[in-house]
Amino acid sequence: MLKSIELSGFKSFAKKSTLSFSSPISGIVGPNGSGKSNTAEAFRFVLGEQSMKALRGKRGPDLIWSGNDRQPKAHRARVALVFDNRRKLLDIDFDEVVVERMVHRDGAHDYTINGSKVRLKDVIELLSSANIGSTGHHIISQGEADRILGASTKERKAMIEEALGLKTFHYKKVESEKKLEKTNENMREAQLQQQELALQRTHLERQVKKVERARALKRQLVEHYTRYITLERLRINSEKRRVTELLNGAEHNVTLARERVTKADAKIETEKDTSALGALDVQTQRLAQEKGVLERRRGKLEGTLSVVTNSTEAQHTNQHIPFVKVEALLVDIEKRIQKAHKDNDTSFLHEVVTSVREFLNQCIPNTKTSKHTDSKEALQKELAEVEESLAALCSEEEALAVARTKTLAALREQKAQQNAYFELKEQLREREREYDVAHHEAQALERAQKLLVDIEHRAQDRGIVYTGQAETISLSKEELQELLSEIDRVEARLDEAGGVDESIIQKYEAVCTQGEFIEKEVRDLEHSQQTLLEILSRLDTEIATRFTEGLTKINIEFEKFFSMLFDGGAAQLDVIKESQSGEDEGIEVRVQLPRKKVTTLEVLSGGERALTSIALIFAMSQVNPPPFIILDETDAALDEANSRRYADMIRALSEKSQLILITHNRQTMEAAGELYGVTMGSDGISKLLSVKFDEAVRVTV
Ligand code: ATP
Ligand code: MG
Fold first, then answer.
1. In the beta sheet, which residues pair with residue 82?
2. How many whole angstroms separate alpha carbon 563 and alpha carbon 569?
3. pLDDT tens profile 284-324
4. Beta carbons of 389 and 266 less than 8 angstroms apart
5. Which residue owns the Cα nearest ligand 1 atom 21?
6. Antiparallel, parallel or unpaired: β 674-680 and 25-29
7. Which domains does the chain possess?
8. Residue 35 C-alpha to ligand 1 middle, in angstroms?
9. Which end of the chain is more exposed for a tag (fewer CB within 10 A), N or C?
10. Which helix or strand (DSSP H or E) is residue 18 part of?
């Protein structure tokens, strides 16, 4: 299996040195400090050992040739291990596999497999497939043989598991656990997200409902606006025709009525009052008074005359009124008539009568004194005069009656005219009222038109797109008003609902889609969890079964090797529970030395301890034989007799595993098919050379 190992710049191997393995057992011999153990560590190093302590160093550069005055320090240490892979022990399609590791002075490490740069993980995976591990049970460092005895029960169990080749399963288990942990973490995240989304969804659902309500309201609004605008437009248009006609008609009527009134205005005698009739009445009254006075006078005169005539017929007196006086009276009367005419005053007649009476009174005393002479004649004359005056008054009265009749007719005529005029005025007022009504309607229509424009703007501002629709019905003004109120109400509700935010719907849909996505993810994760748990459970079962089976086999071999080495006695590995839960298990070693009452490891002698270790190591190797085993002076503590038994066991072991033995032991050397000597000269550089048995014995023993 192992073909060769090549060291270059590694520890004391300053120069390139190669060890080739052509025999099942190779021995490495040489004096103390020559570099034998360094070769064993070279194996560990190339197989991927991460513990610097296991390599006897502190840092990477400690592994590089440190240099001296003869040979300068190396820049890197390189170890290449060559496998014969014709039997495909390593899971790689090459007959020869070269695994190489380098460490640089800066501490960087490089791994290659057949010259291709790889990660440490790749190396570990490749080697573990062939039951080779870096910290392996198959490399027993110097003084480390009883490490398994000194280890804790738990560590011991791990070592046994590794020897049983369960590391791959553990590796797989760790991987699956990591995956499960990751899956659980993803699950937690997904569930958190799911919760978060559910919250968002509930929250959005409420908003979506609001938006849907708002949408419905908006639809209603569009319908109402469309209906209102269309019908109101129709109404206004038809009203416009009607109102225009009405207004024009009313205007025309007003003009006509006004013209009629204006015409009547011109005709009507506005100040023709009833004073003329009053004056006539006053005159008539005065005439009647005067007439009464004269008639009484006439009666008196007639009485007096009859007395005079009867008693003093003979005593006829003729009384003469002086002409001058009569003349003066006439002049006065004339003046008064003129004045009365001028003042349009008829009262002068009364004054005339009074003047005449005074005149006569002045004359009468004279007549009385000459009663018997003048009275009859005078009385007759006076009577005649009175008669004359009465006649004048009667004719005047007649004239007045005629004038009154005329005036009354005129007044009646005027009254009729006025009535007609008032009638016209009333008509005008009526027409004006009608015009006002029409005008009022026109104004209302104008306001309605303005309102319609406002409503159209309002609709536009609200982003309402309406298309005129053919309406078969028409609504009354009140119904339209009601529709407008309904618009106000719907608008108020829409505003209260917060309008239509379309982005909410998009958000909601996005959240739903995301929710579905997460739900699917959760299902996938659940499936993954399930699968991983099944894998883990299978792995646990596999590990447990293999472990139990392997442990039984180890115990058989352990017992065998132990009794071989101790020439009797017994030894056994027991599984113990480390904790109450029983999850942590450990392995305890129980030994029974022949003829001794020893059961605990602590009381064993150094040699006994070494023998027990060897028995265990060999037993472990037998059950699941590794491709090779490296033992660095495991035989150091053995006496002659045990060295022989050891050599026999080695021979037996070599049938299943290739052995590389670092030894000072003659028996062991004898068992080896080939021997390499390691020397170190004064230059401090380890050198390798193939040696014969005798030579080897000479050099080392
Ligand atoms: P023994 O028989 O006593 O076990 P050995 O042959 O196993 O001896 P090693 O332990 O392999 O000897 O070699 C130790 C030697 O290697 C020491 O002398 C040490 O100085 C040398 N050495 C270790 N690391 C380096 C290094 N980085 N550079 C140079 N020399 C080194
Ligand atoms: Mg050594």
1. 4, 98
2. 5
3. 888 888 888 888 888 888 887 777 777 665 444 445 566 77
4. no
5. 12
6. parallel
7. 1-138+628-641+660-701 (3.40.50.300), 275-400 (no CATH)
8. 5
9. C
10. strand 17-20
